[in-house]
Amino acid sequence: xxxxxxxxxxxxxxxxxxxxxxxxxxxxxxxxxxxxxxxxxxxxxxxxxxxxxxxxxxxxxxxxxxxxxxxxxxxxxxxxxxxxxxxxxxxxxxxxxxxxxxxxxxxxxxxxxxxxxxxxxxxxxxxxxxxxxxxxxxxxxxxxxxxxxxxxxxxxxxxxxxxxxxxxxxxxxxxxxxxxxxxxxxxxxxxxxxxxxxxxxxxxxxxxxxxxxxxxxxxxxxxxxxxxxxxxxxxxxxxxxxxxxxxxxxxxxxxxxxxxxxxxxxxxxxxxxxxxxxxxxxxxxxxxxxxxxxxxxxxxxxxxxxxxxxxxxxxxxxxxxxxxxxxxxxxxxxxxxxxxxxxxxxxxxxxxxxxxxxxxxxxxxxxxxxxxxxxxxxxxxxxxxxxxxxxxxxxxxxxxxxxxxxxxxxxxxxxxxxxxxxxxxxxxxxxxxxxxxxxxxxxxxxxxxxxxxxxxxxxxxxxxxxxxxxxxxxxxxxxxxxxxxxxxxxxxxxxxxxxxxxxxxxxxxxxxxxxxxxxxxxxxxxxxxxxxxxxxxxxxxxxxxxxxxxxxxxxxxxxxxxxxxxxxxxxxxxxxxxxxxxxxxxxxxxxxxxxxxxxxxxxxxxxxxxxxxxxxxxxxxxxxxxxxxxxxxxxxxxxxxxxxxxxxxxxxxxxxxxxxxxxxxxxxxxxxxxxxxxxxxxxxxxxxxxxxxxxxxxxxxxxxxxxxxxxxxxx
Length: 715
Description:
The chain is an alpha+beta fold. Strands 14-26-25-24-15-22-23 form a seven-stranded mixed beta sheet, with helices on both faces. A six-stranded antiparallel beta sheet has the order 6-5-7-13-8-11, with no helix packed on it. Strands 16-21-20-19-18-17 form a six-stranded antiparallel beta sheet. A hairpin with a 3-residue loop joins strand 17 (474-480) and strand 18. The longest helix is centred in the last third of the chain and has 35 residues, at 650-684. The protein starts with 18 loop residues before the first strand and ends in a 7-residue tail after the last helix. 47% of the residues are buried.
């Protein structure tokens, strides 16, 4: 059967007029969420998404000025920058930018130590003012920015943020004359912020390094000489030279040379790919041996490397349900703790005999210190971003954290047959003429009908015919989706397609049972015969189904427009749970909808197809997976998950990455909420100090962030 499905497109994002900007200085996840929420309130920016994990934002250039004003009102110091300055957003590995904060920390710590050592002496001398001078100086060094931001936010009506919490907590400690603890809490908060920023930058650097496929230069060939230029400066049709050890900077066709290319950055495949004259090469591949001369076929922004980078970097705009829940949870959690702390400070002294306000205010301040939800709102987006980056290294592009999380609940996987479970490399194995036609005539008429098609089945028929076709004699050509082709050639009407086509045209014919796909041919309403075309099952298909079953996928099915006998043979060899044959494109969509209705609560269904012919059903599934997306614009645009080579087992890899990431996210949630619950309880009963509370808060945040980087390393 000839399975031709009208191509469709499900765009990853509406990129018309949108441009990516760097949010330089964005190191606060709660601020990122507030910036996004505030921008969404303005006309024209309703769908703007801030990606905290990559420190970027997609924005219409005409709204940049307005957006910067809004950002300044929320988080002064965060600046929108052009993508060309992307490297500036990540802190350098050397310590040159660390000198100032390290000096501040050192001086503050020294003053704190002096104050603690001589506290009793200073407290009882006529010069008690010196005690305040030492501690307040130490406090101001590390807390000035925190207090200033808190005051600014108060005037904007923004009370429930980490700066406000730390200011109230430490300010309250000063009022009740807990000077060392006030300074200590602010100092360790400063240290925690410092190391948190280092951890965030490390995570961002790790992901950038993982996706380091962006070429830095191209060797442009001009009049026999070569010149190093930016890849963005190269035009379609230009000739470039790729030397051994260099990255291919742009997509193109090899004109001269022979080499082997490392494609692992694009496909996750470790085996080098041969490249010689006439072969296509893609940006991001690495030339391992010979010298190649390449004619450029796409500008850099349209190249495979640029598309992959864009997809991975912007995947954070699609948040997972867990991520959305934590964002919403933090909005209510912080105010709840603040009001709880207020009640703890006021109510017990009024109702408990002998209770003092200073004692219960101190306990309330501990609650404020521990209430910051940074560990969650920072580590969770970093974890998902790491998982997306890790999967891309394995040759699987996942277009959002929501799809990454959906893969963890995969219950049913539905495969297309041709090109997904089978190689899609067809060859004619048999020709059966009828009604006086010869084998050569049957092949000729089939080749005429398929002359304008790029389908693999059409190519196999044209290769088998080997004759010449006079295109000028083709008077009419009509492709009938899900049926086949009708053409008029030199006055003769030719029909070529599946059994449904002949029934549609009311052409009497014999039923065929063959070991492969059957194409029926009719000429002027008379059945001329049929051609059997064989396809092979991919060696990787068995591995894919075995690994999916090991991962707990309950059902694996196959949908195909092919004949029942062919589908049954493939399904039997692969031990599929079920199959459905003779399906039209709309039948596949209907069948997937039926299967989705049968799913248990929260369970998900994935459809795996070629990304072009199966676009409608890929779009309808919970998770649409496109096979063999390398270099295919339609595949990259149509699906939620793109497997960059032709290995169906990569779907199991994607599920593994998703579950590994999910496990890390759950660990962070349990760690953060568990530790906070313990210290809220201890603090409420007077069994914890502010020192312990700030150590717990900062420590948990650092551990959660570092734990998130493990999402990059799935094996």
